[in-house]
Amino acid sequence: MSELAEDRRIGFVEAAAAAQGWWRGLQPDHQRGNPQERGGDRAALARLRRAGTLAEIMAEEAAIDLWRRLGGGDAQRLKRIAVIAHVLAHVREHDDQRAMRRVGRQSYGDADSAKLKPIRFRRLLAAREDDELMREMRRLVQLADRRLDVGHLAASLLFWGDTTRARWTFDYFAATHARPQAA
């Protein structure tokens, strides 16, 4: 079991809700006509998006806020949460559809319908290090038109491991009917 897995302080559902709340707090309300009244923190989102290294992301107060909301932890966990902050900063709109359902096959037998091609999907599943996971997930967000289930994406990244990879595989191939029940 990895250090990250041993340091879990909250579960998947709690992590999803906490991350979604964090993300919503940073998003400006575009329904308001006056830009000064839109709220959110566009500057923090821009800095998180532009950051090129985990160190730059970890130096952002918004990333530390997310780390706190996700239960804190050690330096390894902070690195993973920095990945989450960077990836979520690229998401522009929340959608209830999970990531692999948006970019994977629309039906089991329809291989051509996937926005995320099989080679890139395999590369995503193979990602083990935080910097490569960050790069692959950022590409995934772009393929999904920057519209994803924010909470599910964040919790999946936080608990990235064999169980999450298996769930994503079933979703990618539109075979969720065969997927074992998730804990």
Task: Kindly describe this structure.
With 183 residues, the protein is an all-alpha fold. It has a single domain, classed as Peroxidase, domain 1, CATH 1.10.520. It has 11 helices and 2 strands; from the N terminus they run ααααααβαααβαα. The chain has helices at 3-6, 12-26, 42-50, 54-58, 61-69, 75-90, 99-103, 118-126, 130-143, 150-158, 162-172; strands spanning 93-94, 147-148. Strands 1-2 form a two-stranded parallel ribbon. Helix 6 runs antiparallel to helix 10 (150-158). The longest helix has 16 residues, at 75-90.
What summary fits the major beta sheet?
Answer: 2 strands, parallel
Text of the CATH class: Mainly Alpha
Total number of helices: 11
CATH architecture: Orthogonal Bundle
Helix content: 55-70%
Helix vs. strand class: mainly alpha
| Domain tally | 1
Quick structural gist:
The protein has 183 residues and is mostly helical.
How is the topology of this model organized?
Elements: H1 3-6, H2 12-26, H3 42-50, H4 54-58, H5 61-69, H6 75-90, E1 93-94, H7 99-103, H8 118-126, H9 130-143, E2 147-148, H10 150-158, H11 162-172
Parallel strand pairs: 1-2
Helix pairs in contact: 2-10, 3-6, 5-6, 6-9, 6-10
Keyword list:
58% helix; Peroxidase, domain 1; 183 residues; mainly alpha
